[in-house]
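Annotators were shown the component list below and the corresponding predicted structure, then asked to write short factual statements about the assembly.
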Amino acid sequence: MSMYYAGILSDIGILLLGALSVYIILATGQLSLGNAGFMGIGAYITSWLTVEAGLPITVALVIAALVSGAIGVAVGFPALRLKGIYLAMATLGFGEVVRSFLLNFAAMGGPEGFHGMHHISTGYIWTWAVSVLVLVMLIEASPIWLEIRAVRDDETAAGLVGLNATEIKVGAFGCGAAVAAIAGGLFAHHHVYIEPGNFSFERSVDLVLAVILGGSTVASGALAGAVMLVILPEYLRFLAEWRFAAFGALLIAMLLVRRQGLLDRALLRFAWRGSRA
Amino acid sequence: MNTTLPPRLRLDRITKAFGGVHALTDLSLDVMPGQIIGLIGPNGAGKTTTFNVITGAYRASSGTVLLDGQAVTSEPPHKIARAGIMRTFQNIRLFSDMTVWEHLLVAQPHSGLAVRRLLPMRFSNRKTIERAEEVLEFFALGNVRNRPARTLPYGLQRRVEMARAVTARPRLLLLDEPVAGMNHDEAEAIRALVLRLRQGGLSILLIEHDMAFVMNLCDELYVLDFGILIAHGRPAEIRANPAVLDAYLGRAA
Amino acid sequence: MTSSLTKVLGAAGLAAALSGIIASGPVHAASAEIVLGAIVPSSGPFAEWGRTNTATLQMLEKQVNDAGGVNGAKLRIVILDDATKPAQATNDLRKLAGDDHVLAVAGPLTSSAAEVTFPVANEMKVVATSQASSKPGVAKNNRPWAFRNTIDESVLGRATVPYYKKAFNIKSVAIIFDAKDATAATVGSKIMPGLMKENGIEVLNANDPLSFNTGDLDVSAQVTKIKALNPDGVVVSADYSQAVTVIREMKRQGVIKPVVGSTQLISSAILKAAPEIPIVAPATFYASMPGDKPQTFVKELTPLLHKISGLPAEIEPSMYDANIYEIGSIYIDAIKKAGVTGKPEDLEADRTKIRDYMTKLSGFPGLGGPIAFNQDGDAIKAFYIVQGQNGAWESKVRGCSAPDGKHGC
Amino acid sequence: MPGAGPGVPKTRSNATPTSPISFWDAFVLIQQLVNGLTLGAVYTLIALSFSLVMGVLGVLNLAIAELFMLGGYFGFAILLARLPLPVALVAGMAGAALVAAIVERIGYQPFRGAPVVTPMLSTLGFSIILQNVATNVWGSDPLQLSDEVLSGRFNIGPASISAIQLVVLSVTVLLVASLAFLVQQTSIGRALRAVAENRDVARLLGVPAGRITLIAFMLSGSLAGAAGVLIGVHYAAITPYIGVEVGLKAIAVMVIGGTTRIWGSLIAGPLIGIVEVMTVAYVGSQIRDFVVYGLMILILLLRPQGLLGSGRGDQSQRV
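Structure shown to annotators:
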């Protein structure tokens, strides 16, 4: 495989994890525009652990995921008070606060960035990406996912039939934050250099974009979205300086053609039946 | 009345005020185990508010809600539901995009390790599936099992809602206008179902405007008007109660 | 169902159709072709640099081919846009080195991109030389394949500050920097305070760093603070387009004090911000630089730049155009002199030859004088302390980035 | 911040201090307040622009930041053609309103009824397009006005207010007042408020909801355009990326002011402007964003209806 495609694949794998982190939170009806913040937390913790504490990357990632997950839970509780676009704006604020913190975090370079990480292979990134994707897909077949869907659809009714919406929503925030941290840790070790600018609002939006373009009702949508988002700008190179203008136009066109995203449950069911017929 | 057993449900002087407006004033009400109790009254009498207070959707301004003698007044809705009170809604609240079968799984409590909830259904939760099959058969929903519930006819949607509530093996079932908009045959079928549920040991409190249905089904009736209990008794007594007639007919006339 | 399927196919087709247009696959270097690569930011906030860089490289390509090519082979420069996004720069390098089989790569431009792209260059064993990165230590961390045709800001500052002190009789300064820009923040928070101390200049806000963020419109509060400190001069460590905001605000508040900064300030745009405020900064090239070589370069390139849409009418070649032109020229020189064959089977050996040539390079005739590279991979070349006032840069001091300050320039 | 306690800015000994809190300090404070107010005016206009669309339609129009930028470029084009400032202002407003209309027709109208995130992302698509088109048309270097429009200034001791600052402030007040009149007193305003309250009911009452959303977008666009011209002239330099940071801040200002109350931004804008400036002046410039976004989160959690919002926010839960 060419190094170029390996690089592209690594980007897709990292974006897939980031998108899944948004997907998990969105599944409970909460839109997070701050997941780049969790990615940043993960990236900095993982990098510190491998570079300064000398831990192996896998251990570092697990620790970062746990810490970020705990922060996610801490964010998730106050987030319960907010709905829809208000929650989105609060999480946007969270992301900016994290970035602002990292800029002032002199112990790890502040604006100068941090290096010293070892490069990881595309295979390693995809081991994580596929594991998390499969895990999420398995959970999608579990009772808890029904509860998640119920909470997203009608939180009040869900509560009245005995579902603990608080636990589900906060839990989702924690899980999403943990997955985002893994994405961040892998990002740091793929690029072997990080700076606060890597974890800006723009990246948070990219993660949401991947989920929505790919299809926000199935985990495989995150995969489809990540592939599109990474490949499209590369394919559009022949347009030279109009590349990103065209990218924006295509984005709108895709939403117009299929606002629920490329993949959804009905389509997957259809394909599944088709393949058996 | 058997006084040695605590009532399945007891409302003890419940008051619910929104701002300065009293939606419920000093309402007391008992449902004994195995009873079917009707809650009736004109529109805006506070019937649905009563359900909302019982299920924890509203916090009572004062008074106590007791389930089998245990106060559940300040518990959150999901805990009250898990304690054994399930309900249906006046304007049906099914989960969009969920099939009938999924509705029968979603509300069931999970015993054992929490992690098991994360395992795919077919590997972990044989008991849950058995229960769902049982309820599916009981409510005769087998032939619409994989249909998205919201695409079903109105009458079937009500059934699915009841079925969803029953899967959790509640001790008390609250039905908010279970036969509204149904024809006579459909209403009869619901009546039969409710009676069979009672045979299974369930206590039922229901709101209904269809008087024929209520009179034929309920053991006792409570009548509310402007949030105040104006009558309580057997259907025959209620039918003859002048205050009730006044509340209903006086205004209609 | 079928209609939704059509829509899915439509959406997928949208992407697929586009991919079809350009699914030409990697073009392998024919034996009669010498292929070089470049990574420039042709879109995003630094689009202007990237676009003039592109024109510069196209000019070089044409010049070389008109003169008979490289060792008889045609020169082709594959130029990729990184959209000012570091991650894209890394994939650009992978594509250039892996798929396009280029012999060496010019770029990327920014330090943020260089930080992540140079490690890839090392991994893929191909020379990459940045035309603009000047954040300390970026090439040094990525030896032996990373080079920069720029001079480390701390080296430049060591010559800039004494001139600044002498020319304007500076005894105290206030420092303001762009905290979001890694290079600017390093210069503003580390290098400049140190240099001021070395030169006996008091930093009035030493305990109270003044910063802003890339993209900030308003720096009035910071400038008011500077005004209250009443320094003899102001250190503005920011990219030129951000520095414009600061200098305009200084003018507005009547802080007409000489400004000093790093190479990031060098641009024609900054001269327009406040002509009455003198600006001192180091440069390795400026458009009005005297000499045959630079003047020919400017004369040939300027009309080409004017043909690019979206660039200001009065645009002039920038320092980074000169730098990337030199990088291309050095590569071509290496190919000619180091026995590079350009054959696909010799690719690895060719790349190593170019690297070794670069390492040993001395006295390469650049636009502003001879060029070599030090152990850190940074250029040893002449630089000029230029002073911008009343709309033009004027060279005040010629310096040399060699360790002894003279040999090699 | 050693040695820089709040209220006592570090000053040079040659700055003629005579008492612990000198006149100099007072003038610096005044200057900073003026700075904060000017910045606040910018925030107010852009935040109002966000909140018109947000309040009426519940949609975050991310292209507003770029409408602001475009307004600036349109205004510059007029000023560079040596036409007067009022013409530039009108051109900036009209141009941005026109683009806003396109955004509404393609980026919002087809997505009515979709989850809030969908129109938000389609407007993001526009934002990407506009940034890149602007780069291709005007370049990425700052476009600058060669000599300042309205270069006069008024000095109060060492503090100075420029004529253009006064223009920014007064035009902002004027625009906000006209908007207030429009929303409160005219039939368009009533229709806007009706749609904001309940779109379906408004339609039943004969309000042409489709046209009203278009008007809301165009009004919002023209405010952003006006802000672009004013800011462009005030700072005298614009780039295609000028809207990005200020756009995010304006969202914070809108939230702090309360999204359903248009007037919230009028208070929140200057408030945040002054908070920012005072943070830079007396605490430390590096924690400025921390303070602003932290404040936004705090407001969202403690007073979801915003500082000025009354009663229950429109996002409070109903059973």
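Statements collected:
1. Chain A is about 75% helix and 0% strand.
2. Chain A has one domain: 3-201.
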